[in-house]
């Protein structure tokens, strides 16, 4: 018999039904469950797949550069970044009639094109790229890196080049190399690029490989570095009248601490960013020498953790046993990595708009909205993934004997207290927030808006004031001119920072009121409920009062039959599945809030948000309905415009989203019955019955149907909002 898919599971390969195909796909990447897996092969497979991942990333970024160079308008955009619309790539579509061709021909192009809302133009411009040739060079270089990564992946699967398990488990060496190599050296290299290429470019000087060694980035070269007069590098910064990309009003400083934004580009000062990356580099180069390897200097992580026993004895054996638990569990390590990366991605979303790093990106409103939304959704998926792998750790890798009475065991021991507290917080937030919204809704409906309950967020306003925002009149810390903090920073970064935070045209510390107070608590409800579901799923993954032997059933199981009643929907996978819906809802509220607040800010009618955001009908009418009107009119009986593609995507997104419910609400028996009937009809229909199948068609399992439903729900939800966001923003601001 020929080898059937899946080759990694003999049991599955012999399954006579279509289950073989779906389960094969579902477990293809679960290397641990494959027939002939060993610990060594598991680590080697994952290591090799990382090279493939890198190859895909390099190929993708190379494609971005290549298409902009080939079909974009980068060189024209560079001449006037505020008024030329950046082109992502051309559109070739045989269905386009003359009106469509005209609608999509923009940005100075000769034919239909897509506008770029990714911010790549601003990014490339800021880091010193200026011509299409620069973009082609970058694309070729990344293509080369991509090929190199593929060769690396192949090489590390060859017997001679396969790393051993001991190499993968050498945590100290890996940390040292990642800290000093990945973070330290790359930050240093980036500082070098900013100082040698980007900063000169911002001052109208074109530095490339041919003149790289002749152009001094600073008039005094390396002199100040060796004589200890580092402050010279900060002297004579660009003036506030500096025109970015020209020598007009430019200075000679390379490492500064000016604070605030470049007045023309509304982005952080390049010289501040170079300084920041240099500081990061030094910090991480030092950190990369922290752990003890074969040189006998530094700390042993195991010794550190073993010593972490809180005094007083009330917290048990502290971190004892954690080193081996973490070092021997890939799921634990992945959970930690995903948790960190998720938080960082969300921070990127927050900081990209409030402290823009790229020239002129703050004035490209659609790009700002798209990047914020994109990074928040990515963060949501990554964070939920952290808990999924945390749960798998508890099921597959956790050893109670090795973790007796340490922090991990104690988390499990008092999980009821953790879960019930989270539950209480979620209930409190939910009922109070909804109660306020509904009360305000009723007051508006009855024509007595003055009877709304409007709460000023005074604590948040106080925090904003402490950072220097003066409009609330709190006169505290940095908003007070007499405090020590104010005096200490007055000669360096404070003037720039205070100017920025009190300037009403940017997104730094936006003025907040009762509408913000309410939506913040709605978001807090979403965050706490999502966390509750995820934490409960992970802490109950090994067993619960209802089902003490849950760990024996694995990560995902539908039910344990009718025998002990009520064991459906309680696998760790089910918790993850439920949490993703809450995560999507929460980020929906986050992005609605961000987008509406910014639209009113950019249009100069902030009072619309302030007045309408305190009751539910305000959100439905003045945000969702009002901003979808252009979208619904993308094409109509009188013709079409450049928003028509978003109008179509808006409809298509709803379709995909609604398809999810077909899988989520109807269950297995219905589908199995339908399949049997269709198969019966097929076998009795002339011509059609010439087509036969070897696998007996069966319905998806309960867990699989949920996954398919969840995937459609998520993709449709995000597609719909993406179309709404881009069309409503670009329709207003061009």
Automatic annotation (TrEMBL):
GO terms, molecular function: 4 iron, 4 sulfur cluster binding; chlorophyll binding; electron transfer activity; magnesium ion binding; oxidoreductase activity
Keyword check for Endoplasmic reticulum: no
Reaction it catalyzes: reduced [plastocyanin] + hnu + oxidized [2Fe-2S]-[ferredoxin] = oxidized [plastocyanin] + reduced [2Fe-2S]-[ferredoxin]
EC id: 1.97.1.12
Transmembrane segment boundaries: 51-70, 135-157, 178-199, 273-291, 330-349, 377-396, 417-438, 517-539, 575-596, 645-665, 707-727
Residues holding chlorophyll a B1: 654
SUPFAM superfamilies documented for this protein: Photosystem I subunits PsaA/PsaB (SSF81558)
Record bears the keyword Iron-sulfur: yes
PANTHER family for the chain: OUTER MEMBRANE PROTEIN, OMPA-RELATED, PHOTOSYSTEM I P700 CHLOROPHYLL A APOPROTEIN A1-RELATED
Similarity comment: Belongs to the PsaA/PsaB family.
UniProt name for this protein: Photosystem I P700 chlorophyll a apoprotein A2
Source species: Erysimum teretifolium
